[in-house]
Amino acid sequence: MTALGLNLLLAVLWIAFSGSATFVNFLFGFLVSALAIGLIREQAEGVSYLRRVRFILSLTILFFKELALSAWKVATLVLRRDMDLKPGIFAFPLTVDRDFEITLLANLITLTPGTLSVDVSEDRRTLYVHAIDCSDPEGTKRDIAEGFERKIMEAFR
C-alpha cells in the first residue's frame, strides 16, 4: 500500500472513531496520519512521505513560475517589431531514466510556452526539444537540468 493510500485509510478510520464525518475532521485526521506516517518512515530509513510531498509542491511551484516567466518572454518576443527569432531543435541529455520521469519532464517542457518536446531517442537518453528562440541552447539545457529535471529527481527518487 502506498503512503497516500495508507494516509487516506487512516483519515477515514479517524472519522469512524471520532464519529464526526465533516470535512474539517477528515482534514485533521489526514494531517495527523501524514505526520505519523512521516515519523514512522523516517525511522525505517525510507523516503519520508512529508518530504516527498514537499518536493512535489516545490516542483509545482517551479512549474508555475516557469510558466509565468516563459509566457512573458514569448509575449515580448512576439510583440517586438523586428521579432528576431532563432527557432531550433536541440538535444537534451537526460539524467532521469524511468518512463514516468521522462514523460513528466517532456510534458512540463511542452506545457511551458516557447518550448515543445519533440521526441525521445530509442535508448531513452536524449530528449529532443524545439524552442521558439534557440539562440542559447546550452543555457536552455542548463535551465532544464537545474530546474525541472533536478526537481523531478528530488520528488520521485
UniProtKB/TrEMBL annotation:
The UniProt entry, under Pfam families, shows: MNHE (PF01899)
**Name of this protein:** Na+/H+ antiporter subunit E
Q: Which family does it belong to?
A: Belongs to the CPA3 antiporters (TC 2.A.63) subunit E family.
What InterPro entries does the database record attribute to this sequence? Cation_antiport_E (IPR002758)
What phylogenetic lineage does the species belong to? Bacteria, Pseudomonadati, Pseudomonadota, Alphaproteobacteria, Hyphomicrobiales
Which branch of life, at top level?
Bacteria
- Intracellular or extracellular location(s): Cell membrane
Q: Which residues form the signal peptide?
A: none
UniProt topology in membrane: Multi-pass membrane protein
Alphabetically ordered keywords of this record = Cell membrane, Membrane, Transmembrane, Transmembrane helix
Membrane-spanning regions, if any? 12-40, 52-72
Q: Mind telling me which NCBIfam families this protein's record contains?
A: PRK08965.1-3
